[in-house]
Amino acid sequence: MNFPILSSLILLPSIGALFLLFSKDNEKLNAIKYVAIFTSFVNFLISIYLWFLFDPSTSEFQFVEDKQWLKEFVNYKVGIDGISILFVLLTTFITPLCIICVNNTVEVRLRDFLIAILTMESIMIGVFCSLDLVIFYLFFEAGLIPMFLIIGIWGGDRRVYSAFKFFLYTLLGSVLMLVAIISIYLISGTTDIVKLFELGIDAKYQNLLWLAFFSSFAVKTPMWPVHTWLPDAHVEAPTAGSVLLAAILLKMAGYGFLRFSLGLFPLASEFFTPLIYILSLVAIIYTSFVALMQEDMKKLIAYSSVAHMGYVTLGIFTITQQGLEGSIIQMISHGLVSAALFLCVGVVYDRIHSRLISTYGGLVSVMPNYAVLFMIFTLAAIGLPGTSGFIGEFLILMGAFKDNFLVAVIASLGVILGAAYMLWLYRRVIFGKLVNKELLKISDLHNSEKFILWCLAIPVVFFGFYPEPLINSIEVSIKDLIEMYSFNLKMNIIEVQNNG
Amino acid sequence: MEIALLFLPLLASITSGFFGKFIGDRNSELITSLFVSISAILSLIIFYDVIINRYENNILIATWINSGTLNVNWSIKIDALSSVMLVVVTLISAIVHIYSIGYMSHDPHKPRFMAYLSLFTFSMLTLVTADNFLQLFFGWEGVGLCSYFLIGFWFKKETANAAAIKAFLVNRVGDFGFALGIFLIFYLFGTVNYEEVFQQIPQIINKEIIFLGIAIKSIDLICILLFIGAMGKSAQIFLHTWLPDAMEGPTPVSALIHAATMVTAGVFLVVRCSPIFEYSTLALNLITVIGMTTAFFAATVALVQTDIKKIIAYSTCSQLGYMFFAAGVGAYNVAMFHLFTHAFFKALLFLGSGSVIHSFNNEQNINNMGAVYKKLPYTYVLMIIGTLALTGFPFLSGFYSKDAIIEFAYLKGNTSGYFAAGIGIFTAFLTSIYSWRLIFKTFHGSYNNQKLKIEDLHESPIIILLPLIVLSIGAVFAGFFFKDLFISFSSSNDFWGQSIKFLTPLSKEHPPAWIVLITPIIVVLSIPLSYYLFVKNKDVPNFLADSNKPLYQFLIKKWYFDELYDLVFIRSSKRIGVFFWKFVDIKIIDKFGPDGISSLIKNLSLKANKFQSGYIYQYAFMMLLGFSALLTFLILK
Questions:
Q1: Following DSSP, what letter does each residue of B263-292 receive, concatenated?
Q2: Where are the beta strands (DSSP E) in B275-391?
Q3: Is B388 a residue whose pLDDT tops 50?
């Protein structure tokens, strides 16, 4: 494999962004948009081709590129395995849809907005491909900047407060992670992930290092109690920003837990599993109750994201085949479903300029197509069998059950609450009598909106009935991850015992 | 053939649901009815094949989930048990489809309605033909979803929407137990396929697991968890509150989903899992108790309700209770028999009441009816047939199945068996009273409707009556014809084969004559009694109601379940939600978290603003830098 396919995936959107940067004519908005769509779509095709080339029967990293960057210190090393390829695909799939949807949501400085989105795509793909801690860190943190700008510039009335909150929270975690990465370099003499997996990390450092990584991932996930930035960020962000944030940005943390917390610090992961369980359960139950009482549609969906990500963290730390596969599928599924739900809110927000649930009601009579699609995504969010949400949730709970009966019981309660807040939302927005006169003039979905939402609905349903393509590509990687985890854990335990 | 049987309703649903606008209302109705009818014919063929040739099959369609040791397939399992369910589901469904053409003729959303009905049929078929717990769960949730859609079909009615959500959520509570049961099964056996699970059951009988410090036999726990799922779907006491409210949906829906098919899925689950339940005496006793309590409770409530559909809904609840206590005393085949006969007469009663409601221009209160038996002669006769069959009038279908339940309960020979038989007999009496009350108040006495003149009443059209006639044939003869097949004592008859497991064979003794005779006698005698109470001398029931005010209120309010649940679950959930959001999130986390930090920095910077630039981010950064320096120190130390 000589052609640097991953690097081209990472670079292509940036090149598109650069191209946009030098195109001055803000009047020909369409031309700008087409460039962006074209770039991201080509990227999507490349990633599909990548999936086609990808060999799921091994957990070795594939398409690896390893170039010296800072001599004797950091290499630019990228590569993918079964776990990361799905996230790369998710990113390249969501971005073009995001760009198509900016039509109505962004009115000023469209060019700059598209540049931000494309840069973001580059960064996200970079996160999922990096095989060097420093490279990973750079991408991981760089993602903050475009998102910060998207909220801060194109956001709603309280955008500055939200952007600030977002920044403060994520920065706190990041700095600690940087420190941890430097210490890993000092301890092990390398930041190459593959080498680190082989070497392992000295048991006595693991707990602190784990906590440092955790503080960064927990904020991005977000886990309770560092979740309060998410609802604010979502509420203020423009639709495309919310979509990116929910669909991809949050997944970086789940990916980080899988790749680094489990891979590098098995002993600490084992030690902190109860902490993760408790925080995940609190996230599931607590935020479901909070979501129940929200009056703002976007806030409700944001809180539901916290609950859904609670399942993900729960599944990861069960360290069972089902739990881990479930949490990856849950992340992919949540990526599609939450993106779609935010788009659904965006659709009516563009028309009426209100996010309050009480503004709506009876939309089914005027927007039948919208009602159908919204229903599909509502059901997927509830985790109804036949949607991708079910596969993820069910596998996670199955894995959790293997590990801890009580945890599974409590987490399953979230399924009831989830149905309650989503169906109640749907009922108040879509069903009932159409009271608000303003809504009479509302138009059903445009073609572009229909296109985007169906693009998301089809995989949601398809993977609900046939998750084999997803499971197939992660199966071996997960199996080997668990094996490596158990092996390293055993070594660590022996090490600790020898040291007394 | 099986594949066609399963997928024709799905195809019908997709055609009508997505292309209904293009092909028109009438074509949608025809296609869905036709496809489901073909399914029904195929089911009958398979049923015949099963009876004659002991046909069994397990067709693999595709893999569904394949994760580690968890392998789940889409498949069609045909055996005696599923073939009975196939007949019930597709036959009633086809009849209801045809009926709906007439009943929904004034509705603007016909294709959507037909699509839901067909989709429901498909989900129900995947449920009954599953060969593993996960596909069963898929169908289980699928029928719940269709039920949700159909209850809330008239989406402008607030009450319908509320009822739809209530049905979904109450069922979710049941599903919560069911899902945990599946997890436990997977945990213990490493598989969710029926065959593999059932084979391993004897090995784990004495295995215990510890939950919250209490050791419980795992087999008991599995059964109880599965039964919680069954309670939700089959509206057993504590999880029954959704069923009466579900009557907000169109009447054909009530007949198909909330009488004949979906609500019996719980019974089906218990019977299907008989190889597990047989080993758990605790769970079987629990099922008996819950079943008879529900039978009794629902019958008492049905006595005083005034909404024609709610009376029948409570009656359904009560009859489901009978089925459960039949299963609880180990007479699974009798439970299935009652399920089978009940499907006919209860669908008949519902569709009959639909015909009444149709004639009365959507009036549902029986106090606003009366004296119309001459105006609605066919409906009247058909409703009488349904009532006779329900109450167990001799030689009609309910007579064979219900009496068999009581007899088997008695033959069980233990305390719970005797008790169940006693409750069963008393409930049969109550059933008879409330059913005849419905008939007499609807068709006899004086005409009480203010809005509609009696001259304007008209009998329903033939498309509504024809399905009723078909059902009435089933209601009359299903018991007599199939009793030997379903519940015969003779050893030559082995219809159920491997599909139902009896650990100890059912008692072949004959119950004493008095127990055989007492129920029919009570049932027959209660007809003149009801006539006296509800037509001749109406003062008696009124007097009873007045003199026992608290009891009457207790029954009218349905034992106060709704009020209790509203207080305990709904209002407290809302309060918890507000508390977490407004207090914990905003007043604690934000106040001491980001807002606290920012105001702290702001205060500090105000004090030091003489020599600082004043940008908050710089301070945040400095502070975090210090924090990280500390951590670095700790790590490197």
A1: GGHHHHHHHHTHHHHTT-HHHHHHHHHHHH
A2: none
A3: yes
- Find, in chain B, the residue whose alpha carbon is nearest to that of A463: B64
Mutate to test the interface with A, among B65, B137, B157, B578 (most CBs of A within 10 A): B65
- Return the closest-CA partner of residue B119 out of B86, B82, B84, B147: B147
Q: Least CA distance to A362: which residue of chain B?
A: B156
Percent of chain A with pLDDT over 90: 20
CB B12, CB B35: distance < 8 Å: yes
Nearest by CB: A292 against B137, B573, B624: B573
Helix (H) or strand (E) holding B446: none
Instruction: Give the C-alpha separation, B166 to B170, whole Å.
Output: 6
- Cβ atoms of B254 and B350 closer than 8 Å: yes
* pLDDT, tens only, B64-76: 888 777 888 888 9
**Chain B residue nearest residue A397, CA to CA:** B183
Torsion-angle region of A22 (φ positive above 0: left; ψ -120 to 50: alpha; else: beta) = alpha
β strands within A8-164, DSSP E: 62-70, 74-80
Interface confidence (ipTM) of the complex: 0.87
A148-207 residues touching B, CB cutoff 8 A = 164-165, 167-169, 171-172, 175-176, 178-180, 182-183, 186, 205
Per-residue pLDDT at B492: 56
- What would the 3-class secondary structure string for A472-488 be? HHHHHHHHHHHHHHHHH
Cβ proximity of A224 and A184 under 8 Å: no
CA B152 to chain A, closest CA, distance in angstroms equals: 9
Name the residue ranges covered by the structural domains of chain A. 5-499
Per-residue model confidence (pLDDT) at position B611: 45
Give me the residue label for tokens 């009557």: B247
CA B357 and chain centroid, separation:
23
CA distance A432 to chain B (A): 4
In chain A, whose CA is at the least distance from the CA of B619? A168
What the block records as the tokens of A361 is 């009601």
Identify the three-state secondary structure at position A77.
strand
What does pLDDT average to over chain A? 86
* CA separation, residue A333 to residues A87, A458, B218, B522, B543 (Å): 11, 12, 33, 59, 62
Taken in order A433, A439, A442, A448, the sign of the CA dihedral is negative
Write out pLDDT tens, residues B182-237: 988 988 888 888 888 888 888 888 788 777 777 888 888 899 999 999 999 998 88
- C-alpha span between A227 and A253 (Å, rounded): 13
Cβ of B590 and A423 within 8 Å? no
Note whether A406 contacts B574, CB cutoff 8 Å: no
Question: What's chain B's average pLDDT?
Answer: 85
Residue type, B231: M
Contacts of A186 in chain B (CB under 8 A): 636
Region for A3 from its dihedrals, namely left if φ exceeds 0, alpha if ψ lies in -120 to 50, beta otherwise: beta
Compute the count of residue pairs across chains A and B with CB atoms less than 8 Å apart. Answer: 173
* B613: pLDDT strictly greater than 80: no
pLDDT of residue B111 exceeding 50: yes
The DSSP call for residue A80 is E
The better pLDDT of the pair B552, A139 is held by A139
Asked if B35 contacts B86 with a C-beta cutoff of 8 angstroms, the reply is no
Q: How far is CA A271 from CA A267, A382, A416, A489, in A?
A: 6, 32, 30, 11
Q: How confident is the model at residue B460 (pLDDT cuts 50, 70, 90)?
A: confident
Report pLDDT for B637.
Answer: 67
Q: Is the per-residue pLDDT at B158 higher than 50?
A: yes
